[in-house]
Amino acid sequence: MPLYKVAIIGAGPAGYFAAQALQNSVTEELTFAIDMIERLPTPWGLVRSGVAPDHPKIKTVAKVFEKIASDPNFRLFGNVELGKDVSIDGLTERYDAVIMATGSAIGRKLGIPGEELRNSISAAEFVPWYNGHPDFANFEVDLSGKVAVVIGAGNVAMDCARILAIDPKELDETDTTDHALAKFHESTIRKVVISARRGAEFAAFTSPELRDLPKLEHTDVIIEASAIDEASKRAEASGEIEKSVRSNLDAMRAIAEMPKAGNERSLHFQFLLSPKEIIGSEKVEGITFGINKVQGNKVVDTGKTYTIACDLVISAIGYEPLELNGITFEKGKIKNVDGRVIGTNMYVVGWAKRGPSGVIGTNKSDAAEVVELLIGDLKSPKIGGDISELLASNHKVVDQQYWSRINGAEILAGEARSKPRVKVVSISELLRLGQSL
To answer: Do the domain assignments include residue 437?
Structure first.
């Protein structure tokens, strides 16, 4: 039986679903040895460092990842960085195919004056900070003000806003990192505003996320009913409303019509506002928006402005990839055609392929399509050689057993505190935690 060697760069959802697609393609005539390479000692990507801690059900997909990793032809190489510990050329020479599942980790800039002020931050910094990504363990965010503004109309924006707006007691039994939880308990932020450039009919929130908002016990969620009515009229006038849009609008209308409890904490949605300038001398003191209107099917600036006094601005308008030596990027993605990197034996899946769009499950069908192309391109298997030839003899590799010890230690620490886990955020401590006795 021909054995093909495939290296997957990145141990997030896209990488695991690519591995699953390879495993599902095994036949009597075709099998794969899969080496998954991850920069951090911890796998699972955004499932660990991106999914909001108050949405634990979404994280249960990690059980699928662990089943994929249990295959005898799967090996994890954690704590191995592409471009530092191994080169892309070294991998493409030794493997029949290399799948890039490196995602997009840098927050897009608003490109407006004042964006450099202290406490003007990106969701790409804030989310991994409260989720325990080692790169952001020492990130500084000042929560001593009263008002926070989140720019964006997707689930990441909603996560940021919700985490700021809820009573931190609701996070005590989640896997929010200790350093962030302490900061949330000290926070004096009481009003959080989500601001979208377009109308509510274009919001990229998903309806389950919206329908969860009324469940917040100590936070009033406020949407103007008139904004939803106008959005519905515009959507109907443009033709048949898509099911997802109708579901979103219905969920937002339910929030708008819900009685408010008069809580001290509030979460506000506002639409048709484009950020123009962040105001302040050294630190954020406010933000000015241009007021938009819908003309035809376009959002246009009315020339009028609206300013909010605030103490924190978080931009959640998308992500861009960190560029890598030896890889060509184009329009925020690795340059590819349907997942193929033309002229090489490299393939791309996930956000690195299509840009930062879709939910975790989107990566499954995406990976399956790319793996089908990969299999169609295969020639005779390469003989000999793999990543072990490229790593220094003393390099500390986190294999699946090593990761299982880290995972088990975090879960055990969490049990003592009625939490899913207590995340360790120091790479050196993670490596120490997983050492076998």
So the answer is: no
User: Has residue 425 got a pLDDT over 60?
Assistant: yes
On whether both 64 and 197 belong to a single domain, the answer is: no
Q: What is the CA radius of gyration of the chain?
A: 23
Q: Tokens 């093909």 identify what position?
A: 4
In whole angstroms, how far apart are CA 337 and each of 22, 104, 273, 394, 418?
Answer: 20, 18, 36, 38, 47
- Whether 367 and 336 map to the same domain: the answer is yes
**Residue 406 belongs to some domain of the structure:** no
Q: What does pTM read for this prediction?
A: 0.94
- With 90 as the cut, is the pLDDT of residue 134 above it? yes
Question: Who's near 88: CB < 8 A, 6+ residues apart?
Answer: 82, 98, 324, 325, 326, 327, 346
Which residue, among 150, 107, 122, has the nearest Cα to 273 in the 3D structure?
A: 150
One domain for residues 116 and 265? yes
CATH code: domain of residue 223: 3.50.50.60
Q: Is residue 404 part of a domain?
A: no
**pLDDT for 118-130, tens place per residue?**
999 999 999 999 9
pLDDT digits over 35-89, tens only? Answer: 999 999 999 999 999 999 999 999 999 999 999 999 999 999 999 999 999 999 9
CA 236 from chain centre, in angstroms, equals 32
**Would you say 120 and 151 are in contact if contact means Cβ atoms under 8 Å apart?**
no
Q: Supply the pLDDT for residue 436.
A: 64
Residue range of the domain that includes 44: 3-105+321-398
DSSP one-letter code for 381: P
Q: Which of 300, 318, 336 is the last residue of a domain?
A: 318
Would you state the structure tokens that stand for residue 365, as one six-digit string?
């069908």
Residues 6+ apart with CB under 8 A from 101: 8, 9, 10, 11, 12, 14, 15, 18, 348, 349, 350, 352
The domain that holds 339 is classified in CATH as 3.40.50.720
Distance CA 304, CA 291 (A): 5
For the chain, give the number of residues.
437
pLDDT at 264 over 60: yes
